[in-house]
Amino acid sequence: MHSSQQLSVLVTGGSGYAGQFLVHALANAHKVHYTYGTRQLASAPSSAVAHKVDLATGEGLREAFEQTVFHAVVNCAAISQPGVCESAPEAARAVNVPNHLIDCILRQEQEKGVRAALIHFSTDQVYDGSHAMWKEDDQCGPVNVYGKSKLEAEQCIVSRLPEAFPVAILRSSIIYGPPPPEPVGRALFLQFVASAVRGAQPTTFFDDEWRSPVYVRDLERLVGRLITTAAEAAAGEARAAGAGPGGPADGPWRHRVFNAGGPERLSRADMARQVADALGCGHGAIASASAASINRGVASPADISMDVSRLAAELGFRTTPFREALREIFPPPAQGQ
User: Fold this and answer.
1) Spatial contact of 275 and 195, defined as CB atoms under 8 Å apart
2) For 337, what's the count of Cα atoms within 13 Å in the CB-facing half-sphere?
3) Where does residue 133 fall: left (phi above 0), alpha (psi -120 to 50 degrees), or beta otherwise?
4) What is 8-186+213-264+306-320's CATH number, 3.40.50.300, 3.40.50.150, 3.30.200.20, 3.40.50.720?
5) Domain-wise residue ranges, the chain
6) Taking residues 14-36, what's their average pLDDT?
7) Domain RmlD-like substrate binding spans what residues (predicted)?
8) What is the 3-class SS of 86-136, one letter each residue?
9) pTM summary value
10) pLDDT value at position 4?
11) 31, 52, 269, 335: which has the fewest C-beta neighbours closer than 10 Å?
């Protein structure tokens, strides 16, 4: 990996919500490839290369690695709806635990001598929700199939990729932002909330489940920074006389796991009120309720707010407060309009 050259970056799950934003953002500096399941991105940058891949079986993935040497892989592919995972646990595990992707990363190093950095999107749902402001080293205890599959994915990555590989596991919370360039086939959190608070009928939001929602633009910047630091570390290692496989102290980051959330602990009712404020709607359409009052058919952790201080301490990276991000997403009308 060379920091002075354009890098080849593979974004798996490039047609999903975060994936679309990452494909567009990373294409400004790198040669981006992305995977899709059924439909290519019509809006993708002209320089981006699409690969049809079945992530459950790995079909198409090995071909992508045979065609291109990847310096970095950003894995944001997942079945992320807890209800879907609960009803089809084996299908969820087949996609969410990236064994096929790790096979390809290891094979590339063995056959081509290039050690790809892996940036993997995990979830705050690896925590059991029994207290506030979780830290990365706290004991995990997921309460649903989705969280369990994502924790297994983390364990798979850490156990299969030697410490010389640059790995960053990002435990993201609710990812919010503007609509993506193309529909993703499911309801989007912020857009649902905005529609609800504008409505005439009250919508219920839980006031006793807490998260640390993260702005998708922050994730663009964070992933870009991780790719750059991994490239710089690899270039430094290559320049060092007699450099061999690096140990933990030789990698670009001291740790492999980072809480990737916003800086605040917010309930869904808190978020709805802040969205209403940003839109100038008032709070009349917001009704608060306890999560226990509604049977969603799947267990949900009560408090998985996260301490994100490791991002600042190790990467000098700070995420955007929810209210500040809303001002970017829903700018006030210009005076006179």
Assistant:
1) no
2) 5
3) left
4) 3.40.50.720
5) 8-186+213-264+306-320
6) 97
7) 9-329
8) HHCHHHHHHHHCCHHHHHHHHHHHHHHCCCCEEEEEEEHHHCCCECCCECC
9) 0.94
10) 45
11) 335
